[in-house]
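Notes from the 1:1 (GR / supervisor)

We went over the backlog. Supervisor wanted to see one worked example end to end before approving the batch request, so GR pasted a single chain during the call. The sequence is below; no edits were made to it. Supervisor asked that the structure be written out right there so they could see what the output format looks like.
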Amino acid sequence: MTDPTATILAIAFRHAINEPTIEAGYERFRALSAGAGDVDALDEGAFRTGIAECLRRGLIREPIRLPEGALHCHWRLELTPAGVAAARVVADPGNAAPDR
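Structure output shown during the call:
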């Protein structure tokens, strides 16, 4: 079984996703993950669960944004500094900090 958090981190580390809705964001995510041979695709339920877990752990910024002057919200996938560090570990497990 694929870890949704790791898959989301891997895609967000390599690609920017900025779409009008979460559904469009998921479609973009799915298209990007289909092109990345080393990343397993997630169904929409696992994607939503993974997004919620990434938010809870502070790995991504709040994805729903209302840019200044915009008439409607946008959905964006953006890593926090902690998310970038976690994505680097996903990309290369040898980058993990040693246990103390």
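Supervisor's comment: The two ends are 29 Å apart (CA to CA).
Batch request approved.
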